[in-house]
Amino acid sequence: MGQQKRIDGVPTDSAIDVRGLRVTYADGTTAVDDIDMTVREGEFFGFLGPNGAGKTTTIKVLATLLTPSDGEVRVNGFNIRTDGRDVRKSIGYMAQETSVDPELTVEENVRFACEMYGVSRDERDRRVLTLLSLVDLADVADKPADKLSGGMQKRLDAAMALVHEPPVVFLDEPTTGLDPEARDRLWDYFRRINDQGTTIVLTTQYLEEADKLCDRLVLVQDGSVIIKGSPNDLKGRVGEEILDVELTGDEGARRRAAEIARDLGPFNSNAIEETDNGISVTGNSVREHGTTLLVALDEAGISVVGFDVREPTLDDVFLTVTGEGLT
Amino acid sequence: MTDELSGNSFGGDVVVNTKRWGLKAIRNPFVLAVSLIQPLVFLVLFLTVFGNVAGTAVNGTIPGIGYETFLLPAIVMQVALASAVSSGVGLVNDIETGMFEKILASPMRPSAMLLGKILADFVRIVVQIAVVVVIGFLLGAQIETGVLGILGVVGVGVVFSGWYLAFSNALAVLTEDQESTTLVANLLQLPLLFLSSSFLPIKALPEWIQPVALVNPVTYGVDVARSIILGRNVVSNLPLANSPLEAFFVLLTVDFLFAVAGIFLLLITTRSDVQ
User: Fold this and answer.
1) Distance from CA of B274 to the nearest CA of A (A)
2) So where does this one cross the membrane (chain B) (predicted)?
């Protein structure tokens, strides 16, 4: 690369720049509807949303696998419509489904990826060794890929996306279907490559994953961005604390409990939600006024079986913004 | 440093993919064996069941040869067709494992990827045809032109397979489904063989079949291969060719047309299906 990236002649430090992106499939379904976003160099960027929100479609556009219906998209300064090959040279792409050649060995898969991205012969041996040890697969280098566990195949897939040391890597739901241990190892791996300066764009429906890894994120629903910011900013917008109250009784009891909470005054009425087994109250003085609420519920004959005061999660953010939970 | 075989140049992309598909063929000899079985069964059964009856019809058109010699070029073309079917199935596997999309998201050119795969398939087909020719020879087929004739037949078989390789790979990209690709490609295989000069001379075929046989690429491949092993022009009275060389050019033209259509299809179906 070498030279300063420019967008419309203006120097920029953004790795990805998306303006007015719209994707309508041939059957008329609009998967992405007017998305704007910028990802800065070296950022760990999260692209969150439920199934069908348009995450994978957007990533496929950024990786030049789909041509958008409308909008301007630049990756590493290259226009995806006119400089597709330059974009592909400068990115790593890890699809949602694990993509490895089952008939080749682990090492042959990584070597093929080296050849795919034009890593010079002199460099290949070093890259293969470094990457296999980075993803803890050096000891199974001669094993056919189809003999590996799901987690190991994912790590091999991730290694293949990085052989050319791309400045930007797209990870489309990389930990879906993995057990917690395999997930942790991949997270650790992604953090390490991000620490080395690689810009990472991660799509996920695991909000905990985004919270732990991402510097900034956007939440998407029905193809549109509904909120963006750092995980802490977004959680801060919900409030400082959340009181979850678990109740016995039916839907009527939960509705009455919510009304009592609203009538108490200290709580913002917009931040009182009925949950599956009780109510949830969000605010900045929840801890202080929580006991008042519990007493009021008891006096109204509503039986409280448990309560918890906790910090908001990204799921609470999603719930607040959309009125429904993501997880 | 630019490495010629790194995948950065078109030639490099082709070599890298040929190597990969070659490696996969070696790892999976089952595919190689399976596409040989049906043609070999045909060779043995046709010789045993129809050998005496068909021999008379054959001698009426090409005097002085046995049915083994007449049949061998047809079985060679059958091997080429069967092997081409498994090529498309291999591509569907690549689509299913996500490797196809991984390659599309890389700087490799899709056309170089397909060409590299087809070159690897050619190597596989060479091996398979060589096996069939040896078995045919052991069963009594006469190869008047010796080793050069064998090499010629193998070459014609490879050239003949080109259009069906393109067809089965195009089916793979279109259907993205193993069963559909296998079903359609296999379904066409037997009509292509029977509606040609493969098993009987065109004159001995029913009248309604003859016009089809005259334009069927299988007829052109079989007639060229027959001429090569006999060392004389035995090309049927075809509308597009009267000599082995002309028939060979017809095969090359058919290959070219199918390859262009296949690559065009690959390019339009792999990048986008948005409005």
Assistant:
1) 4
2) 30-50, 70-93, 114-141, 147-171, 183-202, 247-268
Residues of chain B with C-beta less than 8 angstroms from the C-beta of A115:
5-7, 12, 16, 19
* Interface predicted TM-score of the whole assembly (ipTM), two decimals: 0.81
Mean pLDDT over the full length of chain A: 87
User: Where are the domains positioned within chain B?
Assistant: 18-268
> What residues of chain B lie within 8 A of the CB of A66, using their CB?
271-274
With tokens 């948005």, the residue in question is B274
The per-residue pLDDT for A141 is 96
B6–A115: do the CB atoms touch at under 8 Å? yes
DSSP A11-66: E--EEEEEEEEEEEBTTS-EEEEEEEEEEETT-EEEEE--TTSSHHHHHHHHTTSS
pLDDT band, very low/low/confident/very high, at A2 (cuts 50, 70, 90)? very low
Q: What is the DSSP letter of B240?
A: S
Quickly name the fold that domain A241-311 has.
Alpha-Beta Plaits (3.30.70)
Give the pLDDT confidence score for residue A4 in this predicted structure: 54
Tell me the CA distances in angstroms from A127 to A68, A130, A151, A201, B177, one per residue in order.
Answer: 34, 5, 21, 23, 35
Q: Which CATH architecture has domain A6-234?
A: 3-Layer(aba) Sandwich (3.40)
Give the span between the Cα atoms of B117 and A116, in whole angstroms.
14
pLDDT, tens digit, 9 for 90 and up, residues A7-20: 555 556 799 999 99
pLDDT band of residue B94 (cuts 50, 70, 90) is very high
The average pLDDT across B63-73 equals 89
Contact B6 A68 (CB under 8 A): no
CB A29 within 8 A of CB A63: no
Q: Sign of the C-alpha dihedral, residues B55, B61, B65, B68?
A: negative
CA distance A263 to B178: 63
Question: In the structure encoding, which two tokens stand for residue A212, read together?
Answer: 């732990």
Read off φ and ψ for residue A69, nearest 5 degrees: -70, -35
Rounded to whole angstroms, how far apart are CA atoms A97 and A313? 27
Residue A311 pLDDT > 90: no
Q: Residue A284's pLDDT is what?
A: 72
Rounded CA separation A184/A180 (Å): 6
Residue B205 CA to residue B210 CA, distance in Å, equals 6
Task: Say if A131 is an interface residue toward chain B (CB within 8 Å).
Answer: no
Q: Which residue has the tokens 């279907």?
A: A177
Interface test with B, best of A101, A109, A125, A170 (most B CBs within 10 A): A101
